[in-house]
Design brief:
10-stranded antiparallel β-sheet, Beta-galactosidase, Chain A, domain 5
């Protein structure tokens, strides 16, 4: 099934340009300077003239992303913290805006076998490995290879044995804001030893703005006929489950909140949506549109395009308002969404899932594009 157009009319941002330019409440570079493991952290500001994004090289995190609404009013539509210490020593959500891996999502029981060797990885989430373990690629300082007005080239080599994974894995990643109002994330990686690789991006979005209220009224469409169902610990069972007739069917656009509290065991385990959708696409490397989301109050909309075969959709179910974001407002229950393009979770333990194994004679490639626009 081809993804249908979610909105009848899409307007260019330039339609709002008659209003005076708004002064943005950007984070201060000095608040993001420190040393971690002997490496310097910095804050970088990227812009394409319409979108403005700030990124720290600590975990390659997107700290802020400013976008206009239908009237030209700007809002910061990603969750984040106001200084580097909050990211390094946080007592709240660890993965705000970060790149996650070397194996994104979960590995059951923190164990897998590769080439006859059993590997043990940190059990940092209810006895499972989540987003690479204790250090991953988000709790490290990335080298900045090149920085331009609208782009950033970052590099990190995860050493052999970090978080229990084999191989020195060298990752190159580019963040780019294009003239088409795309936030493009591209990854490439090579290894000197066979290893699992499944990288992803973990920005938390609210198209009303950070702490702007519920996301259950956002209108969502996902081009996927199946999910990978999970057990009580959110580990895939190894099966595929058809979304037809279930709360997981977003093939036709509707509000996130329409069925989020349906009497369903998986929804209860995740306190809402936290599942992997199997995208309706071939595994051929082509970048295609797989998802759209629209916030009616502001008119802000976002598409996701990718060359990956799956996507995790998480509806911010484990925020409880006990800690604040960068504007001193509580980060509350179901006030953000995450869309992580990826391969299947726990694929290292399911031979029937597409492989996430990278060998020394291969190169890992991954593109994810977040396209922003105003819709009516």
């Amino acid at each position: 099934m081809r993804l249908t157009y979610l909105f009848a009319v899409a307007m260019l941002f330039t339609a709002c340009c008659g209003k005076p330019k708004q002064t943005l409440d950007l984070m201060k570079a000095e608040d993001f300077r420190t040393t971690v493991d002997g490496k310097q952290t910095e804050l970088y500001t990227l812009t394409n003239g319409t979108l403005t994004m700030q990124v720290t090289n600590f975990g390659a995190r997107v700290v802020s992303l400013w976008m206009p609404d239908r009237n030209g009013n700007m809002a910061d539509i990603v969750l984040g913290y106001q200084n580097i210490d909050r990211y390094i020593n946080n007592t709240g959500e660890r993965f705000l805006g970060a790149v996650v891996g070397r194996v994104a999502n979960r590995i059951g029981n923190g164990k897998f076998t590769l080439e006859g060797v059993e590997y043990t990885t940190p059990q940092n989430n209810n006895g499972q490995t989540l987003h690479g373990g204790l250090k991953g690629v988000d709790m490290v300082v990335w080298d900045v290879v090149a920085a331009a007005e609208n782009s950033l080239h970052l590099r990190y080599t995860a050493p052999d044995g970090q978080d229990g994974f084999p191989g020195n894995l060298t990752i190159n990643m580019h963040y780019t804001l294009t003239e088409n109002n795309d936030f493009v994330v591209t990854y490439s990686a090579t290894t000197d030893k066979t290893t699992p690789v499944n990288l992803s991006h973990h920005s938390f979005f609210n198209l009303k703005g950070e702490a702007g209220g519920t996301i259950t009224d956002h209108i969502l469409q996902i081009d996927a006929d199946y999910i990978t169902p999970t057990n009580s610990l959110l580990i895939p069972t190894g099966e595929l489950m058809a979304v037809e007739g279930t709360a997981f069917d977003f093939r036709t656009p509707h509000a996130i909140g329409d069925m989020i509290d349906t009497d369903n065991e998986q929804l209860k385990n995740g306190r809402g949506y936290d599942m992997n959708w199997v995208l309706n696409r071939e595994d051929n490397g082509e970048v295609v549109k797989v998802m759209s989301i629209y916030e009616p109050q502001s008119g802000r909309a976002m598409d996701v395009l990718t060359d990956q075969i799956a996507m995790q959709f998480y509806s911010g179910n484990f925020f409880d308002g006990t800690y604040d974001g960068k504007y001193s407002k509580p980060l509350a229950f179901r006030e953000s969404v995450v869309f992580e393009t990826q391969k299947y979770p726990d694929a290292v333990n399911h031979s029937n899932f597409p492989s996430v194994i990278l060998t020394p004679d291969e190169e890992y490639k991954h593109t994810c594009i977040y396209h922003f626009y105003i819709a009516e």
